[in-house]
Amino acid sequence: MSAIPEEVEARWQIALVDDDATVLRSLSRMLSMCGYDVTTFRSANAFLSSLESWQPEMLLVDLRMPGTDGLTLQSLLSERGFHIPTVFLSGHGDVATSVRAIRAGALDFLEKPCDEPALLASLNRAVDVARRERRRSNAIHDLRSRAARLTRREHEVFRWVAAGRLNKQIAATLGTTEKTIKVHRARVMTKMQAGSIADLVRMFDLLNVDSLTTTESATETGG
Amino acid sequence: MRRSQEVRRATIADLGVVSWTARPGDADWRVTTISRGIEHMLGYSRDEWRTEGFWIAQIHDEDRARVASHLEQAWRARGRIAEICEYRIFDVVGQVHWLRTSVRRSSPRSRTLLGAHLDITDEFQTLEAARLSAERLSFVAAAAKLQWWDEPVTVQERATSAALASLAGLDPKRRTTPTEWLTRVHPQDRERYVRNIEHWTRDDVDAASSSRSLEAFSYRVRHVDGSIRWITTTMARTPETGGLGARVLGAASDMTAKVAMLKDLRAAEQLYQDVWNSISAMAVVLDRNGTIVEVNRAWLESARAEGRDDGYVGTSYLDVAHRAATAGDASMVAAAKGLTSVLHGRAPHFALDYRSHRPGDANDRWFRMRIIPLHRPARGAVVMHDDITDSVAAEWSTKQHRDDLAHMQRLATLGELATSIAHELNQPLTAIMAAASTARRLLRDAPDDDLLNGIVADILESVVRAAEVVRRARAMVRRDDPVLEPLAINDVVSDVARLVGSDLVIRQVALTLNLDPMVARVQGDRVQLQQVFLNLLLNAIDAVSDLPRSARNIVVSTRTHGMGQIAIVVRDTGPGIPQALGDRVFEPFVTTKRQGTGLGLAIVRAIVQAHNGQIRVETPEEGGAAFRVVLPAC
In terms of residue numbers, what domain contains A28? Predict the structure, then answer.
């Protein structure tokens, strides 16, 4: 079944929020059976406060709950900078509410009671998003550890090469010879495991987007 | 002596002369001679006359003693003087004659009294008639409260008659001069007064013609008590006959009361006419037979439009009604019956609403006919026709509007019920479905257990069916999504206030609209928002209904609320929402009313939320409950 995550992948971390304990328990059992790593919460607030210590990869949340309801939780999460793929469950799926939820970034909107295939199909879309996110964060993590092995001078050469400067220009800027720059550049390519200059530029962009601080310090040094 | 004998004879023969003899001290006078004239007049025989005391016996009882004493005195006067007396005497057939008799002893020693008689019966009757006439005149004058006078022209010129003066409260003994009198006459009437008086006192006036033409004139006089009196005077001038000189006859009476009454009457008549014609209904007065005797302006205008300038006056209303009834106008059957009942005093009044089509009108018009009996002695009735088309239409449209909203309310209640049940059912269904799915997955490891696999398959199939039933039920009564348009919220509130108008009257609740004319429009569905405020207002009316009448107050206010929002607050003076309940009153099946479904406020909240608004219940310090609806402005 396509809904079952690949064997090689770690179990997907999903948070389940519903005020009904029985619903929570039965859904949790079902999703666990299907291979998810399920954590349940009886209220939106309980879930929100748990976020200090962890972050689930996806969220299945009931729309209508006492206190903070599903839509409010969604907007609170986005306010706090969490981008968790979310699927809504609703006892009454009226068009206006579902439109609002989807506009606010919900992946899907399911009417209760939903059967297993429908729920798993929706969650698969969340899995796709989560997988992309997981790969991206793995790649960045990998690149970061490679970049950590670069010397200070190699870092500077990495930045200028990614910015499209010629060896001669870089040598002039750094006050050294073109030959030296050539050596540095070859080392950067090897350490970063880049197959081409284009590869190197893409790696630089990924690092730049995700770790602003690293790039900033590099710019300062260069400036 | 001879000469005296001759004279006596001649006198006895030609004049009414009687001589009597008497013995001194004896009253029984005996007639000795009687002239033919007297004998003929009274008709007694000569023998009867000669009987002693016969003359005296024929005299009227009341006069007899007086006549006897006269005769006695004449006897004792011995011819020096003649006694004259007037008295009544009966003739032979019992008729009374008045006689004037002059008695004298013919000589101092004569034994005979001589009486000369004059028949004054005619003269006496004339006098009596004159006396009676004067008596009648004064009686009539007194009865008619007339002051009258009959004076020489010259007196009228010199002074006002005593009779006239008394009308102005002046002393009648002190004659008032014309100048003095004129100062009492109202300035506006003076010229006319002078002209009239001069007409009767002028020397050149044609006495013969003026005596025949009586003319009355009225003028105002200031009474001594300060009030103004109306005096009507009629005057005539008698012809100058018998050397008495021309006389002025006058009669005057105080007409103040009559003039005042007349004025009041005229004012009352005018008032009646104005009121009668100001009635916008078409109205007629019928006599006791149902004939139209009077019509008002509205009726007349309507009749003129039908070419009847007479307004049908003189036509029998009853006949017209009967004819229309016979022609098949069902409402006229009832009208004719009602009219007959009222005219015969069997019904205190009658009213009937009917529909009528007039040529030229696009639609039928509604009229209300009212028949009110007249309590005057001649009886009869007033019939009024009010054009109530507009109020009937308004009433009908209000009713229609309320019916529509009531229908919507029933649908909404059903929808809310289904939603609530669906929500309550869907939770366990979700749990069942998830649990069964898990079970099925677990059973993959035991594919040979047909019994367990069958059970789980049945559970799953049944739960899917149950979910489908709930879904279909909800879909059937789903509230339509609001059709949003820019709305003046004040208009929506006013519309709803009008719809509950009759509830307010019947339950004697005071509703105050405190609407801010500056509030912006809202994006809303008119009918759904009307439903919101109808629910809130009807709840408020219910809440205050058990209070004393003066404490039943509801205030609806609108105002701008923060940035781009409008708040509408419905506040009542009722017992308020229990603190423990709070916002839970908006949840389905929560109610404070014995008869409530607990869905009204749930619907209200659902609609408000569908409008991206919020609703809250508050407990004001002064008590009661306040429902605050906040809607986004557009």
Answer: 13-137
